[in-house]
Design a protein that fits this description.
By secondary structure, the protein is an alpha/beta fold. About 35% of the residues lie in helices and about 15% in strands. It has a 5-stranded mixed beta sheet. Strands 6-7 form a two-stranded antiparallel sheet.
Length: about 260
Amino acid sequence: MQTIRPFHRLCAPVFCIFAVVFLTVAESRAQGKTMTLSAPDAMQENGFLKFVLPRFMLKHGIRITPVSATETADAALVSPGDRPAFSDGQTIYGLSVKPGNPHAEKFADWLTSGIGLRTILSFKVDGQAVYSEPVAVEQIVVAPDLSGDAMRGMDASLRACGRCHVVGDINRMAGIGSTPSFAVLRSLGNWQERFESFYVLNPHPAFTVIPDVTLPFDQARPPPISPVTVTLDELEDIVAYVADMAPADLGAPILHQ
């Protein structure tokens, strides 16, 4: 026999939900936990804001009042925004937050978090998801602007560095075993900086001369080996030579100090 529940019991869960929302909004007003959010008209017309904002307000007790995209607000959903949040397939939207409003910062943290993204992705119109993850922006790697001559750089490298380093196939059986080859140095993420400033990196200051750059050697501490002289033009040539070199394949990231 089917049990018929009293009407007031059926309505109790629904009443509780509305009571929680009402109390949350009332509490936020009492504590001044409010903020304004400007957004494109399309996001207000398609129901997106009505879907997303209550979920945040109920969780954090911060009341958000949507305003038009032309109005000044504590936070703005704009393209691309300071903090990318989602995409409609063609345009990336993100949040730009007005400084000094902790409630707007909290909303930005939530919207760009994993929970916020899942909430955004669950919004649908006629059964179809409207928004997706932010489209990854392809990073353009700009090649270093090198003015040196690589061919002259090979000759300068062999003359100035070849007695300690393997600079290439031209002296691959030479060099000191404990000294890294140019190909290994080329594998480092800061290889260019290292080559351009090699004369200040140990042990080079003890025996390297860069005219008009390095100071004279201390007479009380003469160079341990025959000094190496490299001009600034030759240094640019060496960097250009190393730039054209294939990095050594060491099979794993290099750990260095």
